Amino acid sequence: MSIFYLKMSFSYFSCLSHLIPSFIFLCAWFFYFYRFKAMCLAF
Fold it and tell me: What is the pLDDT of residue 3?
C-alpha cells in the first residue's frame, strides 16, 4: 500500500514538474503576444 502511494505521489510530482514550466512558458507567450498585438495596433 505505501509503495503504491509512493509511486502515485512520485508520478504526480513528476507530472507537476513537467506542467509548471510549460504553464509559465504559456503565460509568457500570451504576455508577449498581447504586447506585440498592442504595439501593432499603436502603429
Answer: 85
